[in-house]
Amino acid sequence: MLTVLASKWLTSKWTKAVLFSLCLGPLAAIIWPFLRGYTIPNPLEFIQHATGDWTLRFLVITLTVTPLRQLLHLPELIRFRRMLGLFAFFYACLHFTTYLVFDKLFDAHEIWKDIYKRPFITVGFLAFTLLIPLAITSTAGWIRRLGGRRWRILHRAIYISAVCGVIHYYWLVKSAVIRPLTYAAIVGLLLAWRVGEWFLRRRRTALGNAAPQQTPIKVSQ
Ligand code: HEM
């Protein structure tokens, strides 16, 4: 009964609109103090941290969709995965733009020096660049063009991006490692789930192939 209700709610056209508005909430929370003229001691740090946090949160939320679909028997949840992934990319773009515009003032030489010399920037940059092809190929047209199998393989890069995001966070904090370690545990668990699922699927296929073929019985007349 509960599953039926949930699946009805999840397939409603309004649910997507509600989720879209909710995903814009963090952006509103970032802009609001500026609009209200509140005193923010370090505005650059405030924006950089908030956008970084939300990029990682959206990456983790996106990765949770598949296990949740399977655990709750709600295949309809897939409708929201693309939107959540694109929001991860959106906040990553804001995060990178803040760095590019306000931190480095478009100085390409400084940026390359940072990427080359500061490991936490190198790995953050890798996490970000990995998301670009995923955002571009997130449309139905690209799924058709690449073919389902190749598209799925490409989109596994979101796991690498999330792992790089966690390392980026871990390397930049000096002592408060609890939060990055919590993210590491969650991403590790989600990765383990997918690997376990892949092994189970392979085993089932192997068992299916090994099962004796049924030979048709000849009926003599
Ligand atoms: C998917 C990609 C990325 C993720 C998930 C991510 C995540 C984060 C997180 C969680 C934080 C810390 C927020 C906090 O302390 O509350 C952070 C900070 C930061 N990130 Fe990223 N980031 C990404 C990409 C990048 C890129 C591409 C750059 C620049 C090239 C970058 C530069 C920074 C900087 C400069 C800080 C602040 C460091 C400080 O306060 O000392 N990040 N990021």
**Coarse shape:** globular
Low-confidence stretches: none
Fraction of helical residues: over 70%
Count of helices? Answer: 10
Q: From the alpha carbons, calculate the radius of gyration and give it in angstroms.
A: 22 Å
> What's the rounded overall pLDDT mean?
93
Q: What percentage of the residues does DSSP assign to strands (E)? A: under 5%
| C-alpha end-to-end distance | 53 Å
Number of DSSP E strands = 0
Q: Give the H and E element order.
A: HHHHHHHHHH
What ligands can be seen in this structure? Answer: protoporphyrin IX containing FE
Q: Could you describe the largest sheet, including whether it forms a barrel?
A: none
Structural class, from secondary structure content? Answer: mainly alpha
Task: Give the secondary structure arrangement, pairings included.
Elements: H1 2-11, H2 13-35, H3 43-72, H4 81-103, H5 108-117, H6 119-136, H7 140-146, H8 148-155, H9 157-172, H10 178-210
Helix pairs in contact: 3-4, 3-9, 3-10, 4-6, 5-6, 6-9, 7-8, 9-10
The chain binds protoporphyrin IX containing FE (HEM).
Protoporphyrin IX containing FE binds next to helix 3, helix 4, helix 6 and helix 9.
